[in-house]
Structure formats: structure tokens, C-alpha cells
Amino acid sequence: QVQLVESGGGLVQAGGSLRLSCAASGRIFSLDTMAWFRQAPGKEREFVAAKSSAGTPSYTDFVKGRFTISRDNAKNTVFLQMDSLKPEDTAVYYCAVRRLTRTTYDYWGQGTQVTVSS
User: Fold this and answer.
1) C-alpha count within 13 angstroms, C-beta hemisphere, residue 36
2) pLDDT by residue (tens digit) across 33-46?
């Protein structure tokens, strides 16, 4: 069983930065994909970024050039560095894990709130 715990959310002004962390307990393999999603009030949850050790990171278009995902496999931790934040980035950010052999994300964290003021 895998448990994910996010941290690092908070309130920041537009143009500022935040760094989210997600620590996983249980067995995470380097080829598993660790990802970030977000959900704004009244909206569907959407993909933000993902990274496995097998390839380059992937990002959704609206965060490219502003957000950076990274992993520390030794510590089973994934990070999301968020720069040049915009009010529309306000959302609950979730960490998730997809096993190499799976097509869905089966493990989710409880989420951390990010609020960007204008």
C-alpha cells in the first residue's frame, strides 16, 4: 500500500513562487510515474505534470516554462516548483502515483491548497 502526503501549499501573491512536496510511504519504483494534478473550485481535476525515471517530464501547456517537476527516488519524494504564479493557478494540488504496468493513477494524496492573490 502506498500513502502520499503533500506539503508546501499556501497563499502567495501573483508572480511569486511555491514549492510543493509529496512524500510517499510504501514501495515506489523509479519507473512508476509520479504526478501532480489540481482542482480549482467548480472545475474538474486536471493534469499538471508527471515524471518517471524512464523519460523526460511532461507538463500541461498552461504551466510549461513556469512549473518544474522533479523527483528524489531515494526519498520517494516528488516536488513541484511553481514560479510566476497566476491567480488562475489557485487550486488544490494533488500528488498521484501510477504504476509502470497500469494506465490509471491508483494512489492519491489528500491535497494541498495553493492560493494566488492578484
Assistant:
1) 34
2) 999 999 999 999 99
**Which residues have C-beta within 8 Å of that of residue 17, sequence separation ≥ 6?**
81, 82, 83, 84, 85
DSSP 26-82: S---TTSEEEEEEE-TTS--EEEEEE-TTS--EE-GGGTTTEEEEEEGGGTEEEEEE
Handedness of CA 105, 26, 57, 82 (dihedral sign): positive
Give dist(CA 87, CA 106) in Å, integer.
Answer: 29
The cell numbers describing 35, all together, are: 504526478
Q: How far is CA 4 from its chain centroid?
A: 11
pLDDT tens across 52-91, in order? 877 789 999 999 999 999 999 899 999 999 999 999 999 9
Which residue from 34, 46, 44 is spatially nearest to 72, judged by alpha carbons?
Answer: 34
